[in-house]
Amino acid sequence: MSQREWLWLVELHSLLEKQRVRLCVFSIASLQFFDEPLGMALAGGAHVAARFMLASEPFHGVRSIDELAYVMRGYDDGSEWPPGSGCSFTAGLAPRPWAGGFRMEHQADRLMQAMNETLPSHYAGPMDFPMKTVTQACRHVLLRIASGGNVEAGTSPEAWCLAVENCGHRTLMALVSATAALRGASRRESSHA
Question: What is the pLDDT of residue 183?
Answer without folding.
Answer: 59
